[in-house]
Each structure stands twice: as structure tokens, then as C-alpha cells.
Amino acid sequence: MANKGPSYGMSREVQSKIEKKYDEELEERLVEWIVVQCGPDVGRPDRGRLGFQVWLKNGVILSKLVNSLYPDGAKPVRVPENPPSMVFKQMEQVAQFLKAAEDYGVTKTDMFQTVDLFEGKDLAAVQRTLMALGSLAVTKNDGHYRGDPNWFMKKAQEHKREFTEGQLQEGKHVIGLQMGSNRGASQAGMTGYGRPRQIIS
């Protein structure tokens, strides 16, 4: 992978806008959750975007995080004993996390790309993925989530309704309000629009 130099012009503006989306307060909450969820052996990053990126970059902590949301014996990602040092191995580890997160229920629109984390292109997207993962864990409420449930919002859950055949048939005879109504409509009191044209000679 070639080193990329500084960006200029339009690409610099775009990168600057992406960097402004990064939330420092959210970083603190996510770090706190990861430490509580995975245990203190994961350590803590230096504060700021760069520290957060370096902490998660090799994919090991992310893999431990997603594994901690599953029961023993059903861990989706194999975590190496020694953190990978080769670039392609680190990217592969991050890709395994992303696959496991998607299988857990994180939608594709909430997922970051491996380069967003690895090259620091969009760390706000990394935060978004971790928030979605935390929200799902709180919503599932299966006993594997550790930490304060108020750190994440619960996702809306489906509330299916069952109707009998009779109820469905009755519904066919009701005129919905979207159709409008002609009740009480008449032309009483109607006058022509505006005044007649005045022709003066």
C-alpha cells in the first residue's frame, strides 16, 4: 500500500468536513463501553482521533468486542494470541469484525469500510458502526451486554398485529379518510369568481 501524501483543494475540503463529524464526547463513551465489555486488558487509547484509530486499527479489540456479545462456544471471530503486525493481516482482522457485526444485525448503511479505520479516512463512520452495535446489544437484552444501558438508544422493535379474516373483510367496507368525503357538500351560496369585467366606452 503506497503512502498517500497530503490532500489539496476539493479533496482537502471534503476530508476536513469528514473530520469535523468526529465526536470527542462519543469517543469517551465508546472507549468506556469497550473497556467494560471486553475487560481492562484491552487498555485505553490516547485521547483524540489518532489515538482512537491506533487503538482499534489492528482489529483485535474490535474482534474481542463483537465476540463478547456472543455466548461461549459461539464466538464468530478468531482472535490471534499475538496482534497481527502485517498490514494485510490487520485489515483482514477488521474485515472479520465487520462481517461478524453485520451477522449480528448492524445494517450495511451503518458499517464503515476497512480503509475508513485503517487509513483514518472517516473515523466518524467507525463511531457510527460501534454505536449501532451497542444499540443492538442493548435492544437484544440477551444478557451479554455489559455497561450502562443508557449509553445507547434502544432500536425500535417490530410490533406485529394479527387480524382475523372477519376483521379484514370489515375493513373493505370502510371509506378511509384519505379518500376525502362529500358529506354536506352543496353549491348553496356559490357566487361567480371575482367581479365581472367592466367595459367603459
TrEMBL record:
<dbReference type="InterPro" id="IPR001715">
    <property type="entry name" value="CH_dom"/>
</dbReference>
<dbReference type="InterPro" id="IPR003096">
    <property type="entry name" value="SM22_calponin"/>
</dbReference>
<dbReference type="InterPro" id="IPR036872">
    <property type="entry name" value="CH_dom_sf"/>
</dbReference>
<protein>
    <recommendedName>
        <fullName>Transgelin</fullName>
    </recommendedName>
</protein>
<dbReference type="Pfam" id="PF00402">
    <property type="entry name" value="Calponin"/>
</dbReference>
<keyword id="KW-0963">Cytoplasm</keyword>
<dbReference type="GO" id="GO:0005737">
    <property type="term" value="C:cytoplasm"/>
</dbReference>
<dbReference type="InterPro" id="IPR050606">
    <property type="entry name" value="Calponin-like"/>
</dbReference>
<dbReference type="InterPro" id="IPR000557">
    <property type="entry name" value="Calponin_repeat"/>
</dbReference>
<keyword id="KW-0514">Muscle protein</keyword>
<comment type="similarity">
    <text>Belongs to the calponin family.</text>
</comment>
<feature type="domain" description="Calponin-homology (CH)">
    <location>
        <begin position="24"/>
        <end position="137"/>
    </location>
</feature>
<keyword id="KW-0007">Acetylation</keyword>
<dbReference type="Pfam" id="PF00307">
    <property type="entry name" value="CH"/>
</dbReference>
